[in-house]
Amino acid sequence: xxxxxxxxxxxxxxxxRVLNAEQLDRVLGEVGQRSxxxxxxxxxxxxxxxYWKGVIxxxxxxxxxSPDGRTCTLTGLAPGAWxxxxxxxxxxxxDFDGMAIHDTRLALxxxxxxxxxxEVSPRFNRFVIDQLNERLAQFLAVIEAERLEPAETxxxxxLAWLFNSVLYPGVGARLALTQEEIGYLSGVSRQRxxxxxxxxxxxxxxxxEYGAIxxxxxxxxxxxxxxx
DNA sequence: TCATTAAATTGTT
DNA sequence: AACAATTTAATGA
Length: 228
Prior knowledge:
There is one protein chain. The protein is α+β, with helices and mostly antiparallel strands. The protein has two domains: 4-130, Jelly Rolls; 149-223, Winged helix-like DNA-binding domain superfamily/Winged helix DNA-binding domain (Arc Repressor Mutant, subunit A). The chain is 44% helix and 23% strand. The chain has helices spanning 4-12, 21-30, 85-90, 111-120, 122-148, 151-162, 179-186, 190-202, 218-223; strands at 32-36, 41-43, 51-57, 60-65, 71-77, 82-83, 97-100, 104-110, 174-176, 206-209, 212-215. The strands form three sheets. Strands 1-8-3-6 form a four-stranded antiparallel sheet. A hairpin with a 2-residue loop joins strand 10 and strand 11 (212-215). Helix 5 packs antiparallel against helix 6 (151-162), helix 6 crosses helix 7 (179-186) and helix 7 crosses helix 8. The longest helix has 27 residues, at 122-148. The protein is globular, with a radius of gyration of 18 Å. It starts with a helix and ends in a 5-residue tail after the last helix. The mean pLDDT is 94. The structure holds a DNA duplex.
């Protein structure tokens, strides 16, 4: 696979801009690329972590499966995302499943390269800390909504997450996503998603399109609260 | 380009 | 979960 798109993607990533020329050269020399069709697995719980992965375009769903076969979706990974630093850092295997829910292109940074960057670049370390911290804040917001808020608010939090420009710099104002998919990502029935989206549209926060949504006011989406 | 049809998605119960 | 309405994509005249 010719990694041309991956090279450009790495160069445009926030963490690449904090590296010196020598460090960037090594990364560009070792980065790989992979295209996956919608519906295919991109990483599997229990299998070895070989790469730190970036989403060039498309969409990935992160989920876990219980021993009796039930699955729970944790989050979506939108364009611009880099993921897997957790498993890369602490273990030799993935602790979640990743599935492409759209045709997706991935950039692959070998595990060894990632660890080398951590050793030689304080600013890269800082990037990783910032990213982990941003995720933590997002997870807290989602857990809070899960326990305290009605479904409409949970949908809003889930969408605010997907449009997070720190975690997913590649996402513009518009994201191709059906209401069914939003349901899977936010743990809400499609009917409830439909209601929530219209509520959010009424509030002027986003525009509902056929098979897509467009965010008009991201700050408002983040702080949106439906009345119970 | 237009009309027809199938498939996907949405809105509602 | 089921159904009807709507939108899109594909096909061929």
